[in-house]
Amino acid sequence: MSLNPVVESVTARIIERSKVSRRRYLALMERNRAKGVLRPKLACGNLAHAIAASSPDKPDLMRPTGTNIGVITTYNDMLSAHQPYGRYPEQIKLFAREVGATAQVAGGAPAMCDGVTQGQEGMELSLFSRDVIAMSTAVGLSHGMFEGVALLGICDKIVPGLLMGALRFGHLPAMLIPAGPMPSGLPNKEKQRIRQLYVQGKVGQDELMEAENASYHSPGTCTFYGTANTNQMMVEIMGLMMPDSAFINPNTKLRQAMTRSGIHRLAEIGLNGEDVRPLAHCVDEKAIVNAAVGLLATGGSTNHSIHLPAIARAAGILIDWEDISRLSSAVPLITRVYPSGSEDVNAFNRVGGMPTVIAELTRAGMLHKDILTVSRGGFSDYARRASLEGDEIVYTHAKPSTDTDILRDVATPFRPDGGMRLMTGNLGRAIYKSSAIAPEHLTVEAPARVFQDQHDVITAYQNGELERDVVVVVRFQGPEANGMPELHKLTPTLGVLQDRGFKVALLTDGRMSGASGKVPAAIHVGPEAQVGGPIARVRDGDMIRVCAVTGQIEALVDAAEWESRKPVAPPLPALGTGRELFALMRSVHDPAEAGGSAMLAQMDRVIEAVGDDIH
Ligand SMILES: O=C(O)[C@H](O)[C@@H](O)[C@H](O)[C@H](O)COP(=O)(O)O
Ligand code: SF4
């Protein structure tokens, strides 16, 4: 099947828009390769420091012709998904030695668990922690000791941050090394039901705690299709991890075999390997479009409407929400995984998983087949299912889905269009995830109730003030205001109101979790309230229309009255829990649609100043 014309035209539009920035990016990566810091150029003192503690690998590390893999690890015990990484570096060193290579931990990067910080002050550090991760990745790789990079990360801001940092060392080949989802526990839908019972006072804290522990019960990624698992999908469909490696559970033989084969392959594609594949050439416009297509076809996290533009920017590629919306009009929704469906990622993987998704979308002409991947055979390798025969991984062609309630073919999709769209109107621009919304809720027109703090919404509910059709407006939640937190704690409360038959929608310049689902939400509204955006003009009682059918976010207020209104003044910045440390980033960031990064906003200024005078 030839390439879908919308995919083709959006790709062409992105290539055209990115011509200058992509040219400069590739020139800088060539400068890094030709004149940058690489192991053979280190002085004796530099090298001695780098290998002082690295017996028994010292002799190999002294050989400039070998392959030394730099590991960036984001291990900590806060993220169940990252807990398995604690043992990975020692395993990776062993696997590297098996093929005459070496590995060293180049550095670590922080990782925030958005589940631990959800509804807490720490969530206000979450989005900008992605920049900290990118810069930490750069600090590790700046040692210049490496011919290849192994990135250990899975969750929300971590994979985007790792890629943003590693792409600035795009002259080096790199690979994401996943660790996989935890085995299924209490079903996500049942967890959500018990949360709603708790909100209504029908179950107590002990029952809620028991349900939460039964849902989040062991090492591995949470099993809903949120931002973390959307990351895994995205990295796999970009060909930046080994084929069919995203959704294998931790602590299994296949998982360990996949890590081993990844490290062996990384030695082959490293700068001194026989099949060099620099990250800068793997992440091109077509790979970015493949990621966007995967996001839409699988009903992935709304956070990727921010992360994908940021990752693309780090590779000199410019995408916007119009690109995503245009693709969404052509890309069918072919998976339903919680919150868009009832089943979890383990079930998704069981019924066919990424190989079946990639095979199906490729067959339908929805994906670029000619992208450079870390796998030897190229993109077609990713339409293959991995299994173990003894200790060896064998690949077989992907099979059709075995459960069409979870995964379908393109000819019989859940929806003819993707799970996400751009919303516009007199309230600005926003993103709306439609894949998890029942058809009867796609248009909500109701009076506004305005808040400036998510916790006040729950208080208003508890005081019985929201028992009606309502558009809950939560503003001053943008990157400039307080770091653009997720407001996912509102989901159970708004879900209760919706279940009672009220027309309910959320409108916010903040974010929602990839795990948020059933309640209509127009999010990432820009310009944000903090910079005087129109959302700062909304008053209690204004009729607001949130319509995913027409793509509209509209304050139904007399035009002259609307134009005459002044934006309300911002609240004072919040201090405590380290939030004051991030004031720097809140003052210089890009808007959400351009990726919401403070680091990239400033980077682009210096790149613009240097222009083509790269040397
Ligand atoms: O974007 C995401 O996918 C979320 O940030 C997710 O990583 C977060 O952890 C949720 O908050 C978990 O869901 P609960 O908060 O419902 O447990
Ligand atoms: S998926 Fe979310 S809640 Fe689960 S470990 Fe990752 S960041 Fe934490």
Automatic annotation (TrEMBL):
Cofactor note: Binds 1 [4Fe-4S] cluster.
SUPFAM superfamilies: IlvD/EDD N-terminal domain-like, LeuD/IlvD-like
Cofactor(s) listed: [4Fe-4S] cluster
Pathway where it operates: Carbohydrate metabolism; Entner-Doudoroff pathway
Stored Pfam families: ILV_EDD_C, ILVD_EDD_N
EC number: 4.2.1.12
Reaction(s) catalysed (UniProt annotation): 6-phospho-D-gluconate = 2-dehydro-3-deoxy-6-phospho-D-gluconate + H2O
Listed name of the protein: Phosphogluconate dehydratase
Gene: edd
